[in-house]
From TrEMBL:
Keywords: Coiled coil, Cytoplasm, GTP-binding, Initiation factor, Nucleotide-binding, Protein biosynthesis. The lineage of its organism: Bacteria, Thermotogati, Thermotogota, Thermotogae, Kosmotogales. The gene is infB. One of its GO terms (cellular component) is cytosol. One of the essential components for the initiation of protein synthesis. Protects formylmethionyl-tRNA from spontaneous hydrolysis and promotes its binding to the 30S ribosomal subunits. Also involved in the hydrolysis of GTP during the formation of the 70S ribosomal complex. Residues 7-86 form a coiled coil. Residues 187-355 form the Tr-type G domain. Belongs to the TRAFAC class translation factor GTPase superfamily. Classic translation factor GTPase family. IF-2 subfamily. This is Translation initiation factor IF-2. GTP binds at residues 196-203, 242-246, 296-299. It comes from the Bacteria. The keyword Coiled coil applies.
Amino acid sequence: MPKARVYELAKRLNISARELLDELEELGVTVKNHMSVLDDETVNIIVGLYEEEKKETVRKNEKAKSKVQEKEVKKLEKKLVSKEETPQEKKAPIQQEARTIKLKSNEFKLDILAKKMNIPISKIIKDQFMKGIILRPGQILSMEDTRNIASQYGWEIELIQEDEINPFERLVESYQNAYREGTRLVQRPPVVTVMGHVDHGKTTLLDRIRKAKVAEGEIGGITQSIGAYQVEIRGKKITFIDTPGHEAFTEMRARGAQATDIVVLVVAADDGVMPQTIEAYNHAKTANVPIIVAINKIDKPNANIDLTKQQLASKLGLVPEDWGGDTVTVPVSAKTGKGVEDVLEMILLVSEVADIKCIPQGHARGIIIDSKLDKAMGPLATLVVKDGVLKVGDYVVAGSSAGRVKALINENGKRIKEAHPSDPVQIIGFDEVPDVHSIVYVVDDLDTSRALSQYSKGQLQKEKSVTNRRHVRLEEFLSMTGESNEKKDLKLILKADSFGAVEALKQAMSKLENTDVRIEVVHSGIGSINSSDVMLASASDAVIMGFKVKPDAQARHQADVEGVQIKVYDIIFNLIDDLKKALEGLLEPEEVEEVTGRGHVKKIFKISKVGTIAGVQLIEGHVLKKGKMRVYRNNEEIADVDIEFLKHYKDDASRVDAPKECGIKAVGFDEFEEGDQLEFHTKKSVRRTIDFNE
């Protein structure tokens, strides 16, 4: 039998590539991934042993069952023994209790957790940030997040039972139990996120796949909202999430990575790996999802596929398969369509190996990837269904938002009756705009939906009360991290057309902060700029910035009366650039040293009642009377002194330029020797700038 790749042999044996990889591992055959090539001998051996191996697997399963039964018997025996233990015997585990934190249901807050563990909150925030998790002082945590954070520092969480129990925990637990049992699980279509640097062809690639033009209407040619689309190839579906290309939409991209199963990283063959390519890769890596690299624009005359692969390997550690690595790379031209089918084929193959599962029936749940307030339809949320079947008429809840599904709209703008796992769909029917990245749950009735939303609102109110007191604690946190209390604030009121845009802008602003200046978002929201925003800006001395929204007539008039500045933008680049300039304008000028020239001592003159005068030969630059000089002898600095007076021959001089000679008297230094090397320097005031790439 001829040699074949793993996935090809899997097809011959009528099994999945994942199953074959497992079989190969048990047989001791080392392969990197599903794309690895098996030689003739190995293929023949595997085919010959497959049936026997299947029988052996059955026998192993039977043995495993018997072992499980034995373990259960031992557990029962231990329980019976524990009941007969004396009080003295029960004292053994008391020491472990010292590493257990007991929390009430309303105490799942970062501040409380940090205090109970006796760990600085700044350390926890920094540690979690390195893992890609953004926290803030006073943040309310889920039970799962609390336990995960605590376990990282050697603590366990014990919930103190109260009358008030988080009802969402019961919903989450029901899905977790279903996944643990595994009996109801089936394969679902993969959800794919397309990432990459701006203008590398992400949206063009999707346009080619789904045969729909969306990029042409975008201002500046940049996709500035998340869209989800589904395609079908050979009877199998693939869902795509299109994330924005600009770095300011980092948070959107992060949400896409968390909601996805596979990432397609688009890299232009004529441009190579760029900063946003690295950023996108880091998000995919943090999400721990498979990465397929689409090397785009191979139709360009200056395209260099090999150089692009070299950069992928050196800058990202993504070694292509044909170079001996395990990264799937596909040369493609989104413009001509060349290689697009290969990308889809690889997505299906990687999906098969990843073994993506879901609960096919029952109450649905999904992840909101964008939300906004539509003038015609009201609150509108875009989500990807993860489990179950979402139907028109279902009662839903997403955080503090509740309602009944009035309509479901697919990516083509058509109304549908139901949506299945991995289907992208828009929901009409929420009573308010749900938060982006919140989980949508289907519940039994409207009362349950409203009760859950009211619970969330109560929790948000508690968090808000914490937020109102956060200013003092934030200053304490900043002092703990060594930042100056003299940090200057740029206060902003931020309005945008969607929650996704607001989150993305906040994420971008957090990257612009410096040890001396900081952006403080006094208020943020969605919708047009109104009079309430203006009055708040007036009271807090803030600037109003709007992204893709305008102030209404009353707000404009109020702004003129109050003297409040309103700035609106349609392109994210302009907004970020203005913020950078504003932050740099808050910085105090910086005194910096400037080396003006060099020379050496040619001769020494000792004058009574004056002191020692150094006769200096200037080699380069110039020397200033109001400057300073460093004296070097045998390549070692022996003095750094002010210049008392400067003469050119017998005349006083304010400046002498090379290659002239001059006489110099230093303040408090007379130990010149012939041959001493001199370096002249001065201080000047310069406008400070911020390196926003740090």
